[in-house]
Specification:
By secondary structure, this protein is of the alpha+beta class. Helix content is 61%, strand content 8%. The relative contact order is 0.15.
């Protein structure tokens, strides 16, 4: 059972009070529905008719809700608070598909992307090697960086052109909303903290109306929309374009990596003793998302993905309960039956959305850094992380690099997340060359046990990227074992200290010629400390068995093998 962090009020498996549960669920659902701007952009760029746009949006919302329900429910998904939004990574794929053959081509490309995403769940053990914590940290950090540009553009009222100027009204609204969210999240308790995002957004919206930033709904279209109506879905048919298949496959992989980043973020937030990513939990979340993407594809909709903005809201409210996601899914499902409600959400002021996104970006960047620094970093790992982050920043701040790339590569390079993650994975594999997962060093009676243990284990810990706290805990235990074996004369000719690492365990094996030490099952009496050397060795052996996670006695050839295992 994960240990709940101090800043979390309602952990994943806890049940908030009904009123709190409902309000938090509505808060998350409202934030998710704001992002229907992505499929709206796709529909506008493709020149879709009003009816086709309605089908696109309605299907997207319905299967966002389905995916949220499947992912949050422990029996079908991850049991984490993973609320869906339209998948921004699908926007380039949608635009290319619509240009190549309309909605029918996008259906086929969405299905290909979903299959490529699903296929990765068959290799989750391999993904544990490809995505150690520092690589996951890079992905989480770049999730935050990817949110920075759209959030800052909305906060300052900047247009798409290079000559656009900041609008003071946008700055006033966005920073007021952001300040309220931050102050309530840090300094308040109870209901004020739980609803910090909703309160900040509401006050920001009121201020936006007062300053003239808020946009009125389009008339007469808005007035003609019914409050309640049956959802409109359709079957666009199937189309195909070989030229877009690579982009579809890459989009699926990017979506899986994005999902992995959000799952790791939620795991880390919900567990004070988090050590490594639970890949089985991530696989369940990805499979649930894939089922939803297939459903929305065949009904003319837009794919969805877990919301990184929702992670920031969960942090601000201190609530990660999966039941909140269930309420959010139900609310989104009901929203699909109200065209007027959906249309009204599209006019929430841009600076308010920008403030929420910036808050989420700040949390994700710091959470990613914390993941990176949870491991000891050798020179190889420092360059892996540094170069990967710089590669992602390069395409973010120098868009001309993307525009000069071949057409098939542009959808890949447009995402700082995909670029950074790809570079990190490749460098991590390359820099593994020449690193053995087993290393050893001799220790003699002339050596200082503590110095020998510290230098050897820290050096190997840096090379392997072991957790700092595990290496720090192993050093005094190993030093005490070496000192006992040598000082008591059990290992008269010295010994060999061997270390092994496999992401799950950090093992230190002491190999020596001599008699096997005895590990008592019962605590020796204090009088044993006054006895002979073997009596002292028994006492120390008992203490070692309590301080290491596991102690194993064995033989390797003619030598005794004392294995100290530390869970990683």
């Amino acid at each position: 059972m994960p240990r709940k962090p101090q800043n979390i009020l309602y952990a994943a498996n806890e049940k908030p009070p009904l009123t709190t549960l409902l309000i938090l669920g509505v808060q998350h659902a409202t934030l998710s529905l704001l992002f229907i701007v992505y499929p709206l952009v796709a529909a506008t760029e493709a020149g879709l008719s009003f009816e086709s746009t309605q089908i696109l949006i309605t299907s997207c919302i319905i299967f966002m809700a389905v995916a949220t329900l499947l992912e949050c429910w422990p029996r079908t998904g991850s049991g984490l608070l993973l609320v869906q939004i339209p998948n921004m990574a699908h926007l380039p794929l949608a635009l290319q598909s619509y240009a190549a053959g309309g909605p029918a081509v996008y259906v086929t490309m969405s299905l290909i992307a979903a299959v490529s995403q699903l296929s990765l769940t068959r290799f989750m053990n391999a993904m544990r090697t490809l995505f150690p914590p520092e690589i996951c940290g890079v992905a989480v950090t770049m999730l935050g960086v990817a949110l920075a540009e759209p959030s800052l553009r909305r906060m300052f009222g900047l247009g798409e052109g290079p000559d656009s100027l900041a609008d003071g009204r946008y700055v006033l609204v966005s920073f007021t909303a952001l300040a309220i969210i931050v102050v309530l999240a840090i300094f308040s308790r109870g209901l004020l903290r739980l609803f910090a995002v909703a309160i900040g957004a509401a006050i920001g919206w009121i201020l936006a109306v007062y300053t003239g930033v808020a946009i009125a709904p389009a008339e007469p279209t808005f007035s003609s929309l019914p409050y309640v109506d049956l959802p409109s879905l359709g079957w666009p048919g199937l189309g195909f374009s070989w030229a877009i298949v690579p982009a579809a496959v890459i989009t699926g992989i990017i979506s899986a990596v994005d999902m992995l980043g959000t799952v790791v973020s939620m795991q880390r937030m919900d567990d004070a003793d988090w050590r490594r990513a639970d890949m089985n939990q991530a696989a369940r979340a990805i499979r649930a998302n894939t089922v939803s993407d297939m459903g929305t594809a065949v009904t003319g909709g837009f794919a969805s993905a877990s919301s990184s903005a929702a992670i920031g809201v969960a942090f601000a409210t201190g609530s990660t309960a999966w039941r909140i996601g269930i309420v959010s899914g139900v609310v989104m499902l009901l929203a699909a039956f109200s065209p007027k409600l959906i249309a009204s959400l599209t006019v929430i002021p841009a600076p308010v959305i920008g403030a929420i996104l910036l808050y989420s970006a700040a949390f994700l960047i710091v959470a990613g850094m914390e993941l990176i620094l949870s491991r000891r970093l050798s020179d190889r790992r420092i360059f892996t992380v540094g170069l990967a982050v710089l590669a992602g920043l390069a395409v973010a701040v120098l868009p001309q690099l993307v525009h000069q790339a071949p057409g098939w590569a542009q959808p890949i390079l447009e995402s700082p997340l995909s670029v950074s993650t790809a570079v990190a994975v490749i460098l991590n594999l390359v820099f593994q060359i020449g690193i053995r997962q087993t290393a050893s060093v001799p220790v003699t009676a002339d050596d200082n046990p503590f110095t020998a243990s510290t230098e050897f284990l820290e050096r190997q810990g840096d090379l392997w990227g072991a957790r700092r706290d595990v290496v720090a805990a192993a050093i005094p235990v190993v030093a005490e074992a070496i000192e006992t074996l040598i000082d008591t004369g059990v290992a008269e000719d010295g010994l060999e200290m061997e270390a092994r690492f496999d992401e799950t365990n950090f093992d230190v094996v002491l190999l020596y010629k001599g008699e096997a030490i005895e590990i008592p099952t019962l605590r020796p009496s204090p009088e044993d400390l006054l006895g002979d050397a073997k009596a002292v060795a028994r006492f120390v052996g008992y203490m070692l068995s309590k301080r290491a996670d596991k102690l194993v006695l064995g033989k390797r050839g003619e030598r005794q093998a004392l294995t100290l295992r530390f869970e990683h």
